[in-house]
Amino acid sequence: MSAEAAVFYLFAAVTVASGAVVVLARSLIYSAFALLFTFFGVAGLYVLLGADFLAATQLLIYVGGILVLLLFGVMLTHKLYDLDLRSEVTQFLPGIIVATGLILILASPVRWPLDLRGLMFRTQWAVGAGRPPAATTAEIGQLFMGRYLLPFEAASILLLVALMGAAMIVRRRKDA
Amino acid sequence: MQDVLTSVKWFEPELILTGVLLLVVLVDSTLAAWRNVAARVLTVGGLLLALVRVVELRGVSGEIFSGMAVVDPLASFFKALLIGASLLVILAFTFRNSRELHGLGQGEFYALMLAVTISNVLMATANDLAMLYLALEMVSITSYVMVAYMKGDRMSNEASLKYILFGAVSTGTMLYGLSLLYGLTGNTSLPAIRDFLAAGLTDANRLAVYAIALLVFAGFGFKTAAVPFHFWCPDVYQGAPTPVTAFLSVAPKAAGFAIMMRFFYQGLATPRAGPWDLVGTIDWARVLILVSVLTMTVGNVAALTQTNMKRLLAYSSIAHAGYIMMGVVALSQNGARALMIYLLAYLVMNLGAFLVVTLVHLHEGTFDLRDYPGLYRRSPFLTLAMAVFLLSLMGIPPLVGFMGKLYVFAAIVERGPSYFWYAAVGAVNAAIAAYYYARILKTMIIDTPPAEKPPLRLAFADATWVSLLLAANVLPLLWWARIEASLSLYAGR
User: Fold this and answer.
1) Distances A157 to A160, B24, B53, B89 between C-alpha atoms, Å
2) What is the C-alpha separation between B455 and A64, in angstroms, rounded?
3) Do B65 and A168 make contact, defined as CB atoms within 8 angstroms?
4) Which residues of B touch A106 (CB under 8 A)?
5) B186 at the A interface (CB within 8 A)?
6) In a domain, B153, yes or no
7) DSSP code for B189
8) Domain boundaries, chain A
9) In angstroms, rounded to a whole number, what is the distance separating the alpha carbons of residues B270 and B278?
């Protein structure tokens, strides 16, 4: 195993394991802290892919902004802090069946005696030519102002609507 | 740079809507006494102006913004339909005639309507996976806010939360499918993906393409409320303010079908006269037929026992998504035209039914079918209108709903004998649907009310809009040949 692969598996393991804790933990505060490691692992994977700008924004926005806000929200809300999150109705068996089926279709490694490989191992993926650029920030900026101008501008409308919606839902009604 | 400048010219309808959206937000923040009227006038004016620009630009065809979006006859049709739907909802459903919205802030509502219209239009023109996903998410997020518009209302909040959870799972699934599609083809542009698939698939890649189709379909299914992605639909339709429900039942559904058409007709099919062939030797039609049959059957059977009108119409709208999908399965120019006719008919008949439900709620304060008896004597006009809308939803000639069903079934039968059973299932479903639509009519006309109540007096504006929608259900038949001919132009590539 090359060093790159080792680092990849390390970050992947951190992401998946902490992601499992986020879902399975009974206290919201444990979930929130586990989310920190999930974000960190994903940022590590971005670095490994050579996406330096994405990795930095992942840390800045998700870890620095969203997660801190989430923690404050949980810790300052008494009801949320003590809440037991276990759901009354859990479709445990159907869930396991569907998840196992999905994993087999996606990533089954079996190739003997029958070729039952999942699509991850079977498909001839498109491999790009060359290596990623050393620094991506300038490139991303140019793409946003060029080829991806429309999605970039449309996203600003989305942000405006999200802001408006959040303000509308949170604001107290005058007559209430 | 030149590309951006020419693109902007073809993008004017969307720019007008964006400009008006910003203006409405500004006007609303003045807190002046006239801000509600101004916001309404601006919104209606902006939508009208955008509609006019869309009609003027109907002849052009080509990619804009480096292939992110496309302007073509199909996109023009859907743009006009989607902007028209927003306009109709805003004009016919007002804050005055909706008991649920009465007294709530109006500026935000118009801003949200404009934003969701822009998003719908972007969805109908998307030509790139990035744009497709972003537009879909924009429509969803705006809709979540609109559903939660009645803040104090528990049902409205619950509906919005359910919508968000289902939406997050569906779009997440779709995004995973899109990422696999990018991994397979190395491209996000729909035409490039089509070329890749048209070149033929190796056996090794076939499984991936099947998985991608199913995953991506989760997103389309969510937007069009197709089974098995329909679970949010009844609760959201019931909890949302009725004008929002009416809007959600037509516009995002139409936008979902627009994107489905783009994906299957333009992304995956080779056009020619008569039925088209799908590229890549993968039988997508079989999956769509299964979904379509399930959608109409589940929708219709579940609607049989409903007594809440909003819930009943929610299940009915699920069933109609199943019929509309027949137009996608037909995969021919006639199929595309049938889908367009059905969507137009569905717009006027469904909005009409919801308008009557809203007006009954305004005067009676109830959505329960069990409170409808005696309505015939108290308001013959409203009952007559409801009868026409329901008969149209049933598909009774000579109303527009019948024309929609006729063309969709014809397009399916055209594909050959192996598709006959599919058309037959559709016909059986139409018969089941007739039962619950007729039950509403029976309740309104025949059933005796527990107590006599005074006649129900409609405001002039409300009566006008009901009449206009009524006319839209009946009169198109007079100019049918012209409508058919002009829609054929839009259905081509």
Assistant:
1) 5, 14, 21, 22
2) 62
3) no
4) 211
5) yes
6) no
7) B
8) 1-86, 90-123, 135-176
9) 6
Residue B68, min C-alpha distance to chain A (Å)? 7
Quote ipTM for the complex: 0.89
Round to the nearest angstrom and report the end-to-end CA distance of chain A: 64
Best to test chain A binding among B128, B145, B171, B181 (most A CBs inside 10 Å): B145
493 residues of chain B, pLDDT tens digit each: 568 888 898 999 999 999 999 999 999 988 888 999 999 999 999 999 999 999 999 888 888 998 899 998 889 999 999 999 999 999 999 988 888 888 788 889 999 999 999 999 999 999 999 999 999 999 999 999 999 998 878 899 999 999 999 999 999 999 999 999 999 988 899 888 888 877 777 777 888 888 888 888 888 999 999 988 999 999 999 999 999 999 999 999 999 999 888 887 776 666 655 566 655 556 677 888 999 999 999 999 999 999 999 999 999 999 999 999 999 888 888 888 999 999 999 999 999 999 999 999 999 889 999 999 988 988 999 999 999 999 999 999 889 999 999 999 999 998 888 889 999 999 999 999 999 999 999 999 998 888 888 888 889 999 999 999 999 999 998 899 888 888 888 876 4
Interface check for B120 against chain A (CB to CB < 8 A): the answer is no
Domain of residue B457 covers 283-493
Residue type, A140: I
Name every chain B residue with its beta carbon within 8 A of the beta carbon of A118: 207
Strand duo B62-64 + B69-71: pairing = antiparallel
What fold, for A1-86?
Four Helix Bundle (Hemerythrin (Met), subunit A) (1.20.120)
Minimal C-alpha gap between B397 and chain A (Å) = 43
Number of domains in chain B: 1
Q: How many CB atoms lie within 10 A of CB B385?
A: 23
* Global pTM value: 0.92
Contact by Cβ (8 Å): B113, B248 = no
When scoring B15, B23, B68, B244 by the number of chain A Cβ atoms within 10 A, the one with the most, hence best to mutate, is B68
B115/A124 touch (CB, cutoff 8 Å), yes or no: no
- Is residue B163 in some structural domain? no
Q: In chain B, whose CA is at the least distance from the CA of A120?
A: B208
- Chain B residues 53-72 with a CB less than 8 Å from chain A: 64-69
CB-nearest to B138 from A105, A154, A175 is A154
Q: Looking at CA atoms only, how far is residue B393 from chain A in angstroms?
A: 34
| B128 within a domain of the structure (yes/no) | no
| Sequence-distant (≥ 6) Cβ neighbours of residue B436 within 8 angstroms | B300, B303, B304, B306, B312, B316
